[in-house]
Amino acid sequence: MSEENLPYKDDTELLELFSVTKDNEILGRLLQRYTYLLLGVCMKYLNNEDEAKDAVQQVFLKVIHELPRYKVEYFKSWIYTIARNHCLMLLRLKNKMPSPLSENIASVTEDPNLEQIIQKDIQLNQLNFALDQLNDEQKLCVTLFYLKKQTYQQIAELSGFTLMQVKSFIQNGKRNLKMKLLKMQENE
Fold first, then answer.
1. pLDDT tens profile 62-88
2. Mean local confidence (pLDDT), 98-123
3. Residue 172 falls within a domain, yes or no?
4. What's the pTM value of the predicted model, to 2 decimals?
5. What is the extent of the structural domain holding 89?
6. Dihedral in degrees, nearest 10, Cα atoms 174, 87, 22, 72
7. Measured between alpha carbons, how far is 183 from 188 in angstroms, rounded to an integer?
8. Number of structural domains, the chain?
9. Cα→Cα distances 133→38, 74, 84, 96, 181, Å
10. Domain containing 50 — which CATH number?
11. Is the dihedral of CA 45, 51, 52, 57 positive or negative?
12. Is residue 32 in a domain?
């Protein structure tokens, strides 16, 4: 559909039209309205223009994937929440990255438990890799629940998910993590 064929002015009309037609061009027009807002949000959290631009693209992809699954009434606040949560997840994951294996080895070469330390570092790297393989919702909920020790209620408030969604994302994320870690061990 061309711009002339879309006389709809507000988000609600475009959302309704998109829900009926599933036309990505309509969704593209809606997303285009919020590009600068999202870039500003991502810059605020990430403090890096390139990372912010990448985050906006990831948010757009998430919206394209997620929007058909939800009944969104207030698109602007919904997309803002998606962007904020995505940036918070990126920041949390960035802070949880273990130091490189070589740094750990260099700092503990005199330690008699060197083998245990190396094994633990390998396991942490595997866990981080497996965590990165989860979908964004599962990754966020699992990280907040197990690593940040947040309650279901706190996670729901932070993420905008319902309590049932949080519980489901944690259960499915935990199961998927276990399967991915087992697969990694089998491939060693």
1. 888 888 877 777 788 888 888 888 888
2. 51
3. no
4. 0.48
5. 1-96
6. 90
7. 9
8. 1
9. 24, 30, 21, 15, 11
10. 1.10.1740.10
11. negative
12. yes
